[in-house]
Write a structure and sequence with these properties.
Rieske Iron-sulfur Protein, four-stranded antiparallel β-sheet, three-stranded antiparallel β-sheet, 0% helix
Length: 107
């Protein structure tokens, strides 16, 4: 079940998110890492590395729909949140909508 209009939160405009660089937004007390790929698609995941030692994800680099985490060089699929083999784990993925230049995240 997708987020309803009441659960979508405006977090800025598309031009506020640099391509291939993460930005942190806070919703309901949670830090969310928001990324814009080279095709202007927006992804949002929890800003919490699934590695046992943890750490932020917003400082990672985006290539296609993958995030390369800055601390452990894990490759994370931004569409599913799944860490790619040989590593394992998953991050929470948030629904994203871009409408009339505005970016909305479901939380």
């Amino acid at each position: 079940m997708g987020a309803t209009q009441e659960t979508m939160h405006h977090v800025g405009t598309l031009d506020m998110f640099m391509k291939q660089i993460g930005r942190i937004v806070e919703l309901n007390g949670e830090q969310i890492a928001v990324f814009r790929d080279s095709s202007d698609r927006i992804y949002a995941v929890e800003n919490k590395n699934p590695h046992p030692k943890g750490g932020p994800l917003a400082e990672g680099i985006v290539s296609g729909h993958y995030l390369y985490d800055p601390l452990y060089d894990w490759k994370i699929d931004l569409t599913t949140g799944l860490v790619q083999a040989p590593d394992t784990g998953q991050v929470k993925v948030y629904e994203v909508k871009v409408e009339d230049g505005g970016v909305w995240i479901g939380a």
